[in-house]
Design brief:
Blueprint (H helix, E strand, L loop, with lengths): L6 H7 L8 H8 L5 H14 L18 E5 L2 E5 L1 H10 L9 H18 L15 E6 L11 E2 L3 E5 L6 E8 L3 E7 L10 E5 H6 L3 H5 L1 E11 L2 E8 L4 H14 L4 E2 L2 H16 L6 E8 L2 E9 L4 H6 L9 H4 L2 H9 L4 H4 E9 L2 E8 H6 L3 H8 L6 E9 L20 H8 L1 E9 L6 H5 L24 E4 L11 E2 L3 E6 L2 E10 L3 E6 L9 E6 L1 H7 L7 E9 L4 E6 L7 H12 L5 E2 L8 H13 L4 E7 L4 E8 L5 H5 L9 E3 L1 H4 L3 H12 L7 E11 L5 E7 L6 H14 L1 E11 L9 H10 L1 H12 L1 E9 L1 H6 L2 H7 L1
Helix pairs in contact: 4-5, 9-26, 16-20, 25-26
Length: about 800
C-alpha cells in the first residue's frame, strides 16, 4: 500500500496540521478514502509534524556561502536557497521545527544540487537493496460499512444559478461518489451540488433520480486535465438507498469493486497466522474485582506453553496469580514504563514432591538490599527464570472483531462482547532467560546467608483462578495434552535423572529435569513413575520404553513419546485410563474442538493491537531467501522508528545497520532453513551503540554479543556506548513457519477473488513463500542487570 497517489492531499493537509479543528477537517477531506489509506495518511502526518532535533549543516555540502540560523535554540548552517526553503516550510507547521520542515529543506537542497550537475533525481531507495524492508500493518482491521464500486455512468451536475456540467462517475457507493468533470466547471466548493445519475434515471423512475440528488463536495483535485471531485450524499430517501444498493449488488460482478481495505486486512491476518504459532510471550488479561486489578484470562498458543507450564505446581494449579500478585500488579499498572516494576526473577525449590516458588521484582530486591543474594543464588538453580512484563491499557472505543467484509456484523455475540469489555489491561509475560548468561548473574553472589530468601517465598495458590483460552490453531500432537505433574525417573545406559512432568497425553509427555543430563537424542530411554506406581496396582510402571525426541533449555526439558511395539505398552494404557477417569479434573492444554473460538479471536485481536516487539518474515526466493516484511503495530515503536530514519517513504525501513556483514544469512536465513515448523524459536542477542550525529541523524552500530568476547569486553562496550551516546540490546528470535493458514482468511480470499482475481492469487503466492518468522525485542534493561557495575551506574 502506498501514498504516492495522495501527495496532493498530504500537501493540502499540511497547512492545517496545527489547527485545533484539524481532526474535523481531516475527516471531511478523507471521507471517501478507504480506512487503510486514512490510517496511513494519519501516520504520515503525525510523523512529519513531530518535533525534530536534527541539525542542518550544509557548510561542506554546498558551493554557496552559509550563515548561521537559530531555531528553538538549535544552530543550523544554511546557504541562501536552503534558508529560503526553511522560511517557506516553517509556516506550514506553525513556525515549529518539525521533521517535515527538516525533510523539505534537505529535499529542496538535494534537487538544486542535482539540477546544477544536470542529473535527473532518482528514487533514493534502490529496489535492489536487500536491507530496505517494507512494513505490513498488523492488528489494525479496516472495515467499510458499505461497498464502493468502481462504476462509470454519465452524470449532470449543477448548482443554483449555474449551467449543468456533464461528467462521469469514477466510483459509487450508497453514501458517496467520486466523479470526473472538466477542469473549468465553475462550481463553488463550499456549496452543495445537485447530481443527476442520468443512466440510472432512465432505468429507475423515482423522484430523487429524476430531479437529482444533493451532494456535498468533500475535495477537488486536478489530475490529467480533469477535476476529480469526492462527494458525500446529503439528500435522497430510503427509495434511493434501495436503488443504489440494488445497482451495486447487481453490477458488482461486472464492475470493479474497491477491495483495497479487504486486501490490506487479509494480508495482515495472513502474516499474523505465520507469527502467532511461534509466539513465545504469554498474553494475560486484567480485569477489576472490587476495585482491585486481577488476572482473569490467559491466551495460550503453541510457543508460549513453556511459560504456562513453568507456573503449574505439583497439583497442576497455576501459581501465576501469586507471581504477579496484587501489589506487583498495582505497581506495574501505575508505572508501566519503569524497569524496576516490569523485570521479575523467579526460581523453584522441590521439597518432598512439592514445588515452592520464590520470586521478586527488581524494585523489591533494591528496596530490601537483596540484589546480590537473590540474583547470585537463584541463578545457580536449574529453575532460574528472568521475566519481563509489559502492561498496556485497552481502548474499548475500537471494535473487538475483525469484520473485514462490507456488510459484516462488526460485533461478536453479546456474551463475548461483554466478556471482552470487562478487561482493563493486557499484560505480556516474556521469558528473557538466557542460559548462556547464568554466570553473569552469579557474579552478584557474595556467599550471604540464603535464609534471607524466605521473604520472597510465594504464597501457595490452591485453586484455579485464571481461565485459559487457546488460540484456535491446529494441534501439533495427534491427541490432547493435559496439565499433570508427577515424579519420573529417566534412564539411558548408565545415565540417570529425575524430573517432574509438565504435561501428559496417553502416548507422550514433557519432562522437566532437576539437573541437566547429557542424554543422546533422538534415542531410546526408559521411564519409571514411582508416585503413580502406588495407584497402578499390578500394572508395571517401571522401565517403560520411550523415545527421547528432543531436549530444550540446555537439556533440562525433555520431549518423550512412547515406543509401542507388538505387545501393549503399559504406560500408555495406564495414562489413557488416568486421563479418561479424571477428565473433569485435569486441565486440557489443547483445544481440539475449537471451544471458545469467538472469545479466543477477540483476545487475540486485543493482543495484536500493541505488539511487544517487531515481528519479521522471511520468504524463499529463486536463489535463496530474503527478509520480506517487518510487522508494524498500530502504535509507533522505538525499534522500527530507529530503522525508519534513512528512508523517506511510509512503511519502509532500512535494516542495513542490523543485518549487514552477512548477519541476515548466517544468523537468520541459514538457521531457519535448518529448522522445522515443530521446533521452538531460538534467539541470538545484538548489542547496539546509538550516537546522535551533529546533523540530527542517529548513527547505529550493531555487533553480535557473541563477537564481543568475554564478560569484560561486553561491559567495556556498554560503558563506551553510554559515554558517547546510548546503549541498546535486542534479542532476535528466529523460527521456521508452517504452511499458511488459508482457512483463516478463506472468506476474504473468496471476496477478493470475485472482484480482483489477480490480487487474491498474488496474496496466496505471497503467503506460501514465507518460510520463517521471528521478532526483534528490546532487552536493554535486562542486559544491564546482568552486570553489577553497569546497574550501579544506571541508578
Amino acid at each position: 500500500m502506498s501514498l504516492d497517489n495522495h501527495s496532493a492531499l498530504i500537501e493540502q493537509l499540511k497547512p492545517l496540521l496545527m489547527e485545533p479543528d484539524f481532526q474535523d477537517i481531516f475527516d471531511q477531506l478523507t471521507a471517501d478514502e478507504s480506512n487503510s489509506t486514512r490510517f496511513l495518511l494519519k501516520m504520515e502526518l503525525n510523523r512529519i509534524s513531530s518535533q525534530c532535533t536534527r541539525i542542518i549543516d550544509l557548510r561542506d555540502k554546498t558551493e554557496l556561502p552559509c550563515e548561521e540560523v537559530v531555531i528553538a535554540n538549535q544552530r543550523h548552517f544554511l546557504d541562501e536557497p536552503a534558508k529560503e526553503s526553511l522560511i517557506n516550510a516553517l509556516p506550514l507547521y506553525r513556525n515549529k521545527y518539525t521533521l517535515g520542515v527538516y525533510e523539505q529543506v534537505l529535499k529542496a537542497h538535494k534537487l538544486r544540487r542535482l539540477k546544477l550537475r544536470n542529473i535527473e533525481p532518482e528514487d533514493t531507495l534502490s529496489n535492489d537493496n536487500p536491507y530496505i524492508v517494507p512494513g505490513v500493518v498488523l492488528g489494525s482491521y479496516f472495515n467499510r460499512c458499505e461497498e464502493r464500486m468502481n462504476y462509470s455512468i454519465r452524470i449532470a451536475v449543477n448548482q443554483q444559478n449555474t449551467h449543468e456540467v456533464n461528467g462521469v462517475t469514477l466510483d459509487l457507493s450508497v453514501g458517496g461518489a467520486r466523479i470526473k468533470l472538466p477542469v473549468k466547471h465553475h462550481l463553488d466548493q463550499d456549496k452543495p451540488i445537485r447530481l443527476k445519475l442520468l443512466e440510472l434515471s432512465e432505468e429507475f423512475y423515482i423522484d430523487d433520480l429524476q430531479h437529482g440528488v444533493d451532494y456535498q463536495i468533500v475535495d477537488i483535485q486536478n489530475k490529467d486535465g480533469n477535476a476529480i471531485l469526492r462527494l458525500k450524499r446529503l439528500g435522497g430517501g430510503d427509495a434511493l438507498d434501495k436503488v443504489l444498493t440494488q445497482v451495486i449488488r447487481s453490477y458488482k460482478y461486472r464492475y470493479k469493486v474497491d477491495v483495497n481495505d479487504v486486501i490490506v486486512t487479509a494480508t495482515g491476518l495472513g502474516y499474523e497466522r505465520h507469527y502467532l504459532p511461534l509466539l513465545t510471550h504469554l498474553p494475560l488479561y486484567v480485569s477489576m474485582s472490587d476495585d482491585t486489578p486481577c488476572i482473569s484470562y490467559e491466551l495460550l498458543g503453541r510457543g508460549n506453553q513453556p511459560i504456562q507450564h513453568y507456573f503449574q505446581d505439583e497439583n497442576s494449579v497455576s501459581q501465576l496469580p501469586s507471581f504477579i500478585n496484587t501489589r506487583r500488579l498495582t505497581q506495574l499498572l501505575k508505572h508501566p514504563d519503569k524497569t524496576d516494576h516490569n523485570l521479575l526473577f523467579c526460581f523453584t525449590h522441590n521439597a518432598q514432591g512439592k514445588l515452592h516458588y520464590y520470586s521478586a521484582t527488581l524494585a523489591e530486591l533494591k528496596a530490601t538490599n537483596n540484589l546480590n543474594l537473590f540474583l547470585g543464588f537463584a541463578s545457580t538453580k536449574a529453575s532460574w527464570r528472568v521475566f519481563k512484563l509489559i502492561a498496556q491499557s485497552i481502548d474499548h472505543s475500537k471494535n473487538y472483531k475483525t469484520s473485514t467484509l462490507p456488510g459484516d456484523d462488526a460485533h461478536y455475540s453479546a456474551l463475548t462482547e461483554q466478556q471482552l469489555a470487562q478487561f482493563t489491561h493486557i499484560l505480556q509475560l516474556i521469558d528473557l532467560t538466557n542460559e548462556e548468561v547464568r554466570r553473569d548473574y552469579q557474579t552478584w553472589f557474595n556467599k550471604e546467608d540464603v535464609n534471607g530468601l524466605k521473604i520472597f517465598a510465594q504464597a501457595k495458590v490452591k485453586n484455579h483462578s485464571i481461565k485459559k483460552v487457546s488460540m484456535p490453531f491446529s494441534e501439533r500432537r495427534h491427541e490432547a495434552r493435559f496439565a499433570f505433574k508427577t515424579t519420573v525417573t529417566v534412564q539411558q545406559g548408565d545415565k540417570k535423572a529425575t524430573g517432574i512432568t509438565h504435561d501428559i497425553s496417553s502416548r507422550g509427555l514433557q519432562l522437566i529435569l532437576e539437573e541437566a543430563v547429557d542424554f543422546t537424542e533422538p534415542a531410546q530411554v526408559t521411564l519409571s513413575f514411582p508416585r503413580l506406581q502406588a495407584a497402578a496396582g499390578k500394572t508395571n510402571l517401571s522401565n517403560l520404553p520411550y523415545q527421547l525426541i528432543r531436549s530444550r533449555m540446555n537439556g533440562l526439558t525433555l520431549h518423550l513419546s512412547a515406543l509401542i511395539g507388538h505387545s501393549p505398552h503399559e504406560g500408555v494404557e495406564f495414562l489413557n485410563k488416568l486421563i479418561a477417569h479424571n477428565k473433569q479434573k485435569l486441565e486440557q492444554l489443547s483445544d481440539n474442538e475449537g471451544q471458545l473460538k469467538e472469545l479466543a479471536d477477540g483476545l487475540k485481536n486485543l493482543f495484536m493491537r500493541q505488539l511487544p516487539g517487531v515481528p519479521y518474515f522471511i520468504e524463499k526466493t529463486v536463489k535463496s531467501a530474503q527478509m520480506a516484511y517487518i510487522g508494524i503495530g498500530t502504535k509507533t515503536d522505538e525499534i522500527s522508528h530507529l530503522f525508519a530514519q534513512d528512508t523517506d517513504q511510509v512503511l519502509q525501513f532500512n535494516l542495513q545497520p542490523l543485518l549487514d556483514n552477512n548477519l541476515l544469512k548466517q544468523q537468520i536465513i541459514d538457521p531457519i532453513k535448518a529448522m522445522k515448523a515443530s521446533h521452538d524459536m531460538d534467539f541470538f542477542e545484538v548489542f547496539i551503540q546509538l550516537i546522535r550525529q551533529p546533523r540530527g541523524t542517529v548513527q547505529i552500530k550493531c555487533i553480535l554479543k557473541s563477537e564481543l568476547g568475554g564478560r569484560d569486553n561486553q561491559i567495556k562496550f556498554i560503558q563506551q556506548c553510554k559515554k558517547v551516546g546510548r546503549f541498546m540490546a535486542l534479542r532476535v528470535y528466529r523460527g521456521a513457519t508452517d504452511k499458511p493458514d488459508m482457512s483463516y482468511i478463506r472468506r476474504e480470499l473468496e471476496y477478493i477473488n470475485i472482484h480482483a482475481n489477480h490480487r487474491a492469487k498474488q496474496l496466496e503466492e505471497q503467503l506460501w513463500k514465507v518460510i520463517g518468522s521471528g521478532e526483534l525485542l528490546d532487552i536493554t534493561a535486562e542486559v544491564e542487570v546482568r552486570y553489577p557495575s553497569i546497574l550501579a551506574t544506571a541508578n
